[in-house]
Design brief:
The chain is mainly alpha-helical. The chain contains 7 helices and 4 strands, in the order H-E-E-H-H-E-H-E-H-H-H. The relative contact order is 0.15.
Length: 208
């Protein structure tokens, strides 16, 4: 546990640098599509909670109109389809909007695998994560909670999965999360757009 975080950061840098080297043509193509589709910047920046609860600005490809309410999770918007752009629907469905976070990983704001960074004002989620020590590690591009429900998870369940990750964090576990993420993205699992009731079976996990 003491040695792996050092190895993990080195792997994060090497893998993210390699990804940027090979994926820059895709970045360029997506940038052109976004600018052609709607007015506004190519990247979307948002204040998030990083390691030891220090704030940083996460990067994403912009998928919503510039007049979208800020600092609010998309799944809490009453009618997100009004704000999501045409290209944004594709980017969100395929999770390609998350690609710029490779830059966050290179900078040392994030890791490839870890708890998804909370919004600075998601005080309930931050408080729950404090119980498990998951605010003390680098947030990730994807994580254990992401492959076990993503947006559909209640806060208590999401935080418990993040805590489980802290306990199991290792190269083998990170590899498992990575490949589960690939399959989840291909199946578009756990993506919830708009405010709706959480599934009953997920609520039951709180007390399990």
């Amino acid at each position: 546990m003491k040695v792996y975080p050092i190895i993990k950061r080195s792997l994060d840098f090497i893998l993210s640098f390699t990804a940027m080297f090979f994926l820059w043509p895709i970045f360029l193509i997506l940038a052109v599509i976004i600018k052609t589709d709607s007015k506004g910047p190519i990247f979307f920046k948002q204040k998030r909670v990083g390691k030891n609860k220090e704030h940083f600005h996460i990067l994403k490809f912009r998928t919503m109109r510039s007049d979208t309410p800020k600092d609010m999770p998309t799944h809490l918007l009453q009618n997100p389809d009004v704000f999501i752009t045409k290209s944004g629907k594709f980017l969100r469905k395929t999770s390609l909007d998350e690609l710029p976070q490779i830059i966050n990983i290179l900078k040392g704001d994030m890791s490839i695998i870890g708890p998804r960074p909370a919004l600075w004002n998601q005080y309930d989620l931050i408080a729950e994560r404090d119980k498990y020590g998951s605010n003390d590690i680098y947030p990730g591009l994807t994580g254990w909670a992401q492959v076990n429900g993503r947006d559909e998870l209640p806060i208590e369940v999401k935080a418990s999965f993040d805590g489980e990750y802290v306990k199991k964090m290792s190269l083998s576990f990170d590899t498992k999360v990575f490949f589960k993420t690939v399959f989840s993205v291909l199946r578009s699992e756990g993506v919830k757009e708009g405010n709706s009731d959480v599934k009953t079976e997920l609520k039951k996990k709180i007390n399990s």
